[in-house]
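Researcher: Sequence recovery benchmark, item below. Answer with residues only.
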């Protein structure tokens, strides 16, 4: 099911002892900790190689404090995963959402992220699932129609590739930070411009139709160290006051899509 990420190749990857190889001889190491690195030289040069180890660890601590639990429940309610599902999380980060849902519902789980520290953390925490380091903005390294569910949770969006790897009867979840997300920490000037939900629906309009939409919002009273973790785990303009204990809002717009059928 895994495909070679080389843009002139895209042939099936076959597992050998400590690596994966395609028929053209491109070879990728399988780390001892269980993940596979499919990054291409051009991805490694990218100025946006994804989350740093510090950001990954900070986000994991927030998950472990239970702060994001209500968001996870809302995602479970809109996606309604079944045991028979095969789920790709594109931009899986440390694997919290995918790994937790997979253990609860028993589906097959596949996570892709461009950040090596994030995928390493996911593979360590949820070793029973498949974790891949790859640049999904370029190519989602799986055969067409591999998945019944694709999720993009506050991650990048590659509509064409999501459609290709999704079955015709599959569903796509896109979660984006809502206008209220971390409002206590954002600079007042902000200015959201056009609604992000509208822009996102437009991004997918060629390949997908919106079937459900919900907002998931929770607040948590965070101590100083936790507020610092929030700041570490995200990248957006922040006010520059010293960090203090405070109540913080976490909020996602959840968009569920179905694929449009397109004759090939
Ligand atoms: Zn190849």
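Model:
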């Amino acid at each position: 099911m895994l495909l070679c990420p080389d843009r002139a190749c895209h042939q099936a990857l076959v597992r050998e002892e400590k690596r994966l190889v395609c028929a053209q001889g491109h070879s990728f190491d399988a780390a001892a900790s269980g993940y596979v690195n499919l990054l291409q030289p051009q991805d490694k040069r990218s100025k946006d190689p994804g989350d740093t180890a510090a950001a990954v660890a900070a986000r994991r601590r927030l998950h472990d404090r239970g702060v994001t639990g209500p968001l996870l429940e809302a995602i479970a309610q809109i996606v309604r995963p079944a045991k028979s599902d095969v789920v790709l999380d594109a931009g899986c980060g440390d694997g919290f959402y995918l790994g937790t849902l997979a253990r609860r519902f028993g589906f097959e789980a596949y996570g892709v992220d461009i950040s090596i520290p994030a995928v390493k953390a996911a593979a360590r925490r949820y070793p029973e699932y498949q974790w891949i380091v790859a640049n999904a903005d370029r190519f989602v390294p799986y055969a067409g129609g591999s998945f019944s569910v694709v999720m993009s949770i506050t991650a990048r969006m590659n509509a064409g590739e999501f459609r290709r790897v999704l079955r015709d009867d599959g569903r796509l979840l896109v979660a984006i930070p809502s206008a209220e997300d971390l409002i206590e920490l954002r600079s007042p000037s902000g200015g959201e411009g056009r609604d992000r939900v509208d822009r996102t629906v437009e991004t997918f309009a060629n390949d997908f139709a919106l079937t459900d939409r919900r907002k998931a919002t929770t607040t948590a009273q965070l101590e100083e160290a936790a507020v610092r973790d929030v700041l570490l785990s995200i990248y957006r303009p922040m006010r520059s006051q010293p960090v203090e204990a405070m109540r913080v809002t976490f909020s996602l717009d959840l968009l569920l899509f179905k694929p449009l059928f397109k004759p090939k």
